[in-house]
Amino acid sequence: MRGWQEVYDGGSPEAERQIFLDLAEKMLEIQESNRIKAGKDHHDRTLHSKMVVGVAQASLIVDAEIPAPFRVLHFQPGAALPVAVRFSNASAIPQSDAMPDMRGAALKIMLDGGDVHDLLLTSFPVSHARNARQFVDFAMLAQGPRETFLPRLASRFGEAEAARMINNIQQAARPCASFALERFWSRGAILWDTMPVRFELRPMSTAASHETIDAGPDALRHEFTARLKSGSVSFRLAVQPFVDEASTPIEDAGIEWREDVSAPVEIATLNIPAQDLDEADAKARAAQIDAMAFNPWNAPAPFRPLGNLNRVRGVVYAASSQRWQQRGHSKG
Ligand code: HEM
Fold first, then answer.
1. In whole angstroms, what is the distance from residue 141 CA to residue 62 CA?
2. DSSP code of 250?
3. pLDDT tens-digit profile of 235-245?
4. Which residue range forms the structural domain that includes residue 15?
5. How many domains does the chain have?
6. 116 within a domain of the structure (yes/no)
């Protein structure tokens, strides 16, 4: 496939990598400052710190009829791939599930030979940041005083761009009734052999959110637990192929790939089987999942992440997880 290209910040992959290392340093400063604010003796993930649900025994069942262009490596008709799932709140600092927030879904597909393929998604289709610099600058400015955030944002990005970002964040951060009812999007593109795609998870559950006795800070965990006790939870995995640079850009993650431009093609089902998440074994497996580092760059080469916003994530996630994974060796 032709008509798409990657454009490196600074003019080359090497120059861009240097820029990314500086941005990763800034994200580490945020991680450290949040550790201090939370009064902890260990670091959490810099974002998506609170795992709401972790399930080890999920599977991705590839459609028997998966269209030929999407049959790449393990995505073969009828394949049943073991998957670990970590559902999270996007907030940097763990907070009550009742707070408006964006939600995350991280999938780790277990492949033969110990390889993995991670798919990361959030509950809003388009990023507030067009690129890595915007993402990190926004995150840095958000650390400052709330009252002056808007003017600082406007002076950094200009009025129109600041308004676009705020509007995006306000729509993305909402209350959630159930993770089983959420739709999740990759927001950035990845390669699918020779074709760039964005991907999404579409909920198959239709039952309204389960009544739970405990509506406290972990209400979403209790809701999902109640739901899984009575039946499985499934999502359809769909991919949206690249069309052209104007309507489905690779380097600008602030532009939505509209469905009337590129219709999503469903190719597989993520199935989380009925189980009791309150059992000791399930809790132990959930703790193992929370200890796993997810990274869009944990992917076989034919599924390489594309675009500046996605390229930075390799460096930033590795730096963040290197810190929080040390917590296993400390008291926390
Ligand atoms: C393109 C859209 C993006 C999506 C869909 C996305 C999604 C996610 C998800 C689902 C997680 C949780 C992973 C887990 O459960 O362990 C996560 C974590 C994280 N994200 Fe993103 N993200 C995006 C862009 C970015 C960007 C541009 C940055 C920074 C430059 C960033 C920084 C982080 C960090 C630091 C973590 C914590 C990683 C760790 O410590 O293990 N994300 N993201």
1. 42
2. S
3. 999 999 999 99
4. 9-329
5. 1
6. yes
